User: Which sequence fits this backbone?
């Protein structure tokens, strides 16, 4: 699980990837049903392109260049086409979507995330499409990674989940406990290492990245920090 | 990085990224081959036989289509000799006849004699099909690293060692 692993806090890609991975963990634990169609299409396109290249390599290796050059030309064209479609798919269809799914009540949710180079802000765009056909609603968030990573690079699930539960009514409905605990986020940057270790230990044993309730006693301990 | 491996789709996506780097490099090479109609459109000069035109380590770009004119005397061509692995870069100095079966004789600018010695046993001349391309552009010296690696195999070990060390140190 992401919460037990430490990352380099100055590595923006690590910050984003760890956070991205935590979204499906959290929402799936709330009985959301994840839809994998986007990544499956991407994998299908990519692996067919790779298969074309592998086949081209095989016949070129076995039969030589001159005997196969028209097939090779066709393979190069097909490879360029597949890669073009793949690039189009990633940049215009996926557009940074890290989660698509359906809530227990049938509402569709789609979450896209992005970061700007050298800016430790997590930009989240959440699109909620109600079941009854009313127009989709978009919620945009821009939150600092320091809200859910401590100085040592531990991912802390609770504040991260609160961000989503507080901002999105659909998630709040599925996980009311996180939505209520929208108390000020502890200041990890100024906390000392021992306190953070204690927090991380209590977090990883009780909550991991799921959404189980945490006993109230532990909550007050965190506030003191 | 490793956390992605727990999810089969993410593992597949990471593997794909790596595979696409390899396959794209290969397909670009093949695209260039098809475009230039040559099995090996870029070669490195291995010998000094074409000095002062080309030095060891020069990178040559080949073109193997006769769109405007036939391959003719004065062109620097790369040819393969039957049963020999390494292609040779020399200049066409004589041509008898025209078309696909014209007889071509080649010679290195820096060599005293023509290439009849280098051809296969019983072969006295080249035909167009032996040639894999005419040189149309070159970059001096940048191919020298491949000569270094093939002449001093221990350099490959050193390079692998340095790469391995970097991987260990960077923990990536």
Assistant:
């Amino acid at each position: 699980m992401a919460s037990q692993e430490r990352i380099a806090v100055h590595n923006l890609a690590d910050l984003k990837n760890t956070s991205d991975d935590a979204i499906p963990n959290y929402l799936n634990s709330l009985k959301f049903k994840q839809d994998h169609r986007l990544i499956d299409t991407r994998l299908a396109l990519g692996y067919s392109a790779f298969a074309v290249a592998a086949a081209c390599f095989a016949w070129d290796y076995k039969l030589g260049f001159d005997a196969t050059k028209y097939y090779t030309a066709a393979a190069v064209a097909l490879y360029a086409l597949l890669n073009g479609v793949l690039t189009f798919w990633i940049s215009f269809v996926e557009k940074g979507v890290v989660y698509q799914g359906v809530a227990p009540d049938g509402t569709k949710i789609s979450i896209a995330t992005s970061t700007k180079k050298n800016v430790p802000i997590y930009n989240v765009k959440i699109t909620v499409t109600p079941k009854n056909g009313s127009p989709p609603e978009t919620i945009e968030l821009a939150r600092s990674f320091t809200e859910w990573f401590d100085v040592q690079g531990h991912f802390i699930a609770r504040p991260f989940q609160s961000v989503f539960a507080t901002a999105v009514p659909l998630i709040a409905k599925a996980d009311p406990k996180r939505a209520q605990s929208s108390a000020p986020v502890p200041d990890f940057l100024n906390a000392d290492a021992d306190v953070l270790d204690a927090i991380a230990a209590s977090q990883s044993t009780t909550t991991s990245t799921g959404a189980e309730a945490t006993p109230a006693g532990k909550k007050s301990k965190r506030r003191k920090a | 990085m490793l956390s992605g491996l727990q999810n089969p789709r993410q593992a597949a996506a990471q593997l794909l990224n790596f595979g696409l780097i390899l396959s794209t490099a290969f397909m670009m090479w093949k695209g260039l081959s098809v475009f230039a109609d040559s099995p090996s459109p870029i070669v490195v000069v291995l010998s000094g036989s074409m000095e002062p035109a080309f030095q060891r380590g020069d990178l040559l770009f080949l073109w193997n289509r006769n769109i405007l004119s036939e391959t003719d005397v004065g062109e620097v061509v790369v040819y393969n000799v039957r049963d020999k692995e390494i292609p040779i870069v020399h200049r066409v100095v004589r041509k008898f006849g025209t078309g696909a079966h014209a007889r071509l004789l080649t010679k290195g600018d820096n060599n005293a004699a023509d290439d009849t010695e280098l051809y296969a046993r019983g072969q006295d001349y080249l035909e167009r099909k032996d040639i894999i391309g005419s040189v149309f552009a070159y970059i001096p010296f940048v191919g020298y690293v491949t000569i270094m690696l093939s002449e001093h195999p221990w350099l490959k070990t050193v390079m692998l060692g340095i790469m391995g060390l970097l991987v260990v140190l960077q923990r990536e």
